[in-house]
Specification:
Elements lengths: L3 E8 L4 E8 L4 E5 L6 H9 L6 E6 L2 E5 L4 E2 L7 E4 L11 H11 L4 H14 L15 H14 L4 E5 L9 H13 L6 E5 L2 H7 L2 E6 L2 E7 H6 L4 H7 L2 E7 L3 E4 L2 E4 L1 E2 L8 E6 L4 E4 L8 E14 L2 E6 L4 E4 L1 H7 L6 E7 L4 E4 L8
Parallel strand pairs: 3-9, 3-10, 7-8, 8-9, 15-22
Antiparallel strand pairs: 1-2, 1-4, 4-5, 5-6, 10-11, 12-13, 12-16, 13-14, 16-22, 17-21, 18-19, 18-21, 19-20
Helix pairs in contact: 2-3, 2-4, 3-4, 4-5
């Protein structure tokens, strides 16, 4: 297929990486895992900064790496765009000149590079800051400029390495929304490395989970997070996710509408997801009446002690964290039919990449 194809093995004294996956043109693949899982190592292999012991990295049929044929394309010739945790802008250049740097280095005229820079500064919402140097930009503004710089080079592969990790709680949601808007217009494959499951929910078409240098799960984002096949992935997810289409301040899933707080403006019938924490879920034997809450019928699959709470996991993949006293009072056990009830104020409604399936 066209797009990115990766099949590599890398062994070091303290760590090994084994990865085999593909990313289609225009697709966003999120790589999720704890610290030390191998996420950054994988990006280094894709960028050409690390050479694996064995394997192939191929983009649109062109080999960047083929150890058997002794092919290794240097980093600067791969056409990779990178947005990292820190903006890493040149401090002596204005925002405009930072963005124009890539096109100029690729041979564009000064006028053409400036035109490209202005376009991407506008696309990322910071056109009015083009004359400022990095020291006069906020963290969120600098990261927007860094995104513009990554895109201005017309990358063949876009890599996002924890792009929101260094932003404060006010700047991160706006940047996440911007990335969602920008990425869905891209035709190149994108690899997003993150430890935040919300980044994967909002930005990624597909999800790949790494543990100790091995892929333990991969597939459509909503499917992996709502129906994890491994306990590790379920713990990593840590959130409930219901995917459907936007409708009247909520998400329509079949005949049901899950109401919540709309985080980013949505068009009717646009792919969207309702996201909420297990701690926000109350468990009832009967459906509550006369209350503006979301109520979902579920069948209990398992009860998992977790410190001071018990996680009630449903066969649908949804989870609720309740007290041991509540479990005893309700007489819960596997196979029981109950209601998961969530206040609308505890549910965040996010746009998601098209093609996601409901939970």
């Amino acid at each position: 297929m066209s797009g990115l194809r990766v099949d590599v093995e890398l062994h070091r004294a303290e760590f090994s990486l084994r990865a085999d996956f593909e990313v289609a043109p225009g697709e966003v693949l999120a790589v999720l895992g704890h610290n030390g899982a191998g996420k950054s190592t994988l990006l280094s292999v894709l960028a050409g900064q690390l050479v694996p012991d064995r394997g192939v990295v191929e983009l649109d049929g062109t080999p960047w790496l083929d150890t058997e044929r002794r092919v290794h394309v240097a980093t600067h010739r791969r056409g990779v765009g990178l947005l990292a945790q820190q903006p890493l802008l040149f401090p002596n250049l204005t925002a405009r000149d930072n963005v124009a740097f890539g096109p100029r280095a690729a041979g564009a005229s000064r006028a053409r590079a400036r035109e490209i820079a202005e376009h991407w500064l506008t696309e990322t919402g910071v056109a009015e800051l083009g004359g400022r140097r990095p020291a006069r930009l906020s963290g969120g503004q600098a990261q927007r400029v860094a995104l513009a710089r990554a895109l201005a080079g017309d990358p063949r592969l876009l890599m996002l390495d924890e792009p929101l990790a260094a932003l404060d709680v006010d700047a991160a949601p706006a940047m996440r929304g911007l990335l969602h808007q920008v990425l869905r217009r891209q035709e190149t494959p994108t690899v997003l490395v993150t430890h935040d499951v919300l980044d994967a929910v909002v930005l990624a078409d597909r999800l790949l989970v790494l543990r100790d240098g091995r892929i333990v799960e991969q597939g459509p984002t909503s499917e992996v997070l709502s129906r994890p096949r491994e306990a590790f992935t379920a713990r990593l997810a840590g959130l409930n996710l219901l995917a459907g289409t936007a409708s009247d301040g909520g998400v329509r899933i079949g005949e049901e509408i899950i109401s919540g707080r709309v985080v980013e403006e949505l068009d009717a019938r646009e792919p969207a997801a309702a996201v909420f924490a297990p701690a926000a879920v109350a468990v009832h034997r009967d459906r509550p009446h006369g209350s503006p809450r979301n109520a979902l019928p579920v069948t209990v699959a398992a009860l998992e002690p977790r410190g001071d709470v018990v996680r009630v996991r449903a066969e649908s993949g949804l989870a609720a964290d309740v007290t041991p006293a509540a479990v005893a009072e309700l007489g819960l056990s596997a196979g029981e039919d109950v209601w998961f009830v969530i206040k609308a104020t505890e549910v965040a409604i996010h746009p998601v990449p098209g093609g996601s399936s409901g939970a």
